[in-house]
Write a structure and sequence with these properties.
About 60% of the residues lie in helices and about 15% in strands. The protein is of the alpha+beta class and about 270 residues long. A hairpin with a 2-residue loop joins strand 4 and strand 5. Bound molecules: ligand 0O2. Ligand 0O2 binds next to helix 2 and helix 5.
Length: about 270
């Protein structure tokens, strides 16, 4: 490895600490962004989020592969702090990228579109390289981080390929590579097919979310009525709830919920 800094000159624990803090903060902020979307639009373009700090061995491997001096690691390896956002549909990727571009708590330095420009390996994903101003005990430190945005299908393929690439030290046997290429094509078609029924899936998910929030609302009301209603009334409420619940009809649940509201008002709850 070129450069003059020896491996043992790096205190890895303190070197990685700001990256851990940046990863934790970004993870929390993006999780909240997803919760806000759910509250506002009844769904979030984000299916799941994970974060990780690159291990020292992987940092050294990458520095060696890219011929970086150890002193250059901080400026040149952009994915020491890494966030991965997984979406259900390809269209969600641009929505998430848009939300991230609009944020004022970090700066997007570069965008890498491996979806339009699929890598020769078959890798598809959208990457944002960001500069995150981290408040530390010693002041503000600008930390580079990579945010990868991809679909569930892209993620399935990339995770599998990553494990194989690691197992075979980058030299995946030809027959396996060929099957991986077929899998990449299958993942691409899966994404396309899922997009064609996206609206139906979204509507079903919306209805499920409304139903489960209505049912928990109803159960809470039944609970509070339990303290005021007579035994006979409680019995009737229970029976009616079971009947309405079994109908699997959203409107029936809604009117039962309203009935409970009236009942609660009559009991001054
Ligand atoms: P890890 O273990 O995931 O952290 P390069 O590594 O040279 O291909 P570069 O210039 O560092 O790429 O940046 P790029 O292209 O944005 O890639 C950074 C990360 O994207 C990689 O980190 C992987 O996580 C992912 N990635 C890029 N290409 C591929 C690929 O062909 N297959 C898979 N499975 N993932 C890929 P690391 O450091 O390679 O690995």
């Amino acid at each position: 490895m070129k450069g003059s800094v020896a491996v043992n000159a790096i205190n890895w624990k303190s070197f990685l600490l700001p990256y851990q803090q940046a990863t934790d903060e970004l993870l929390l902020k993006i999780q909240h962004m997803s919760v806000e979307c759910k509250q506002l639009y009844m769904h979030s373009p984000i299916d799941s989020i994970t974060g990780r700090v690159k291990q020292s061995t992987s940092i050294l491997d990458k520095a060696k592969r890219k011929h970086y001096a150890l002193a250059e690691i901080e400026d040149k390896i952009e994915d020491i702090a890494g966030i991965r956002i997984v979406c259900q549909f390809v269209e969600d990727i641009e929505k998430v990228a848009g939300l991230l571009r609009n944020r004022k708590d970090f700066k997007v330095l570069e965008e890498r579109d491996y979806i339009t420009n699929t890598k020769p390996s078959g890798y598809r994903s959208y990457h944002l390289i960001i500069e995150y101003p981290l408040n530390t005990a010693w002041g503000v430190k600008n930390v580079l981080a990579e945010i990868q945005i991809r679909t569930i299908a892209m993620n399935f393929w990339a995770t599998a390929e990553h494990s194989l690439r690691y197992k075979y030290s980058g030299n995946i046997p030809d027959d396996l590579q060929e099957r991986l290429t077929h899998c990449a094509e299958a993942a691409y078609y899966l994404d396309q097919e899922m997009s064609t029924i996206k609206e139906e899936i979204r509507n079903a998910q919306r209805l499920n979310a409304i139903r489960s929030s209505l049912v928990s609302d109803i159960l809470e009301k039944i609970q509070s009525l339990n303290f005021r209603a007579s035994i006979q009334e409680k019995d009737e409420i229970d029976k009616e709830f079971i009947a309405v619940w079994n109908k699997e009809d959203l409107n029936a649940l809604r009117s039962f919920n309203q009935k409970l509201d009236h009942l609660a008002t009559s009991y001054n709850i």
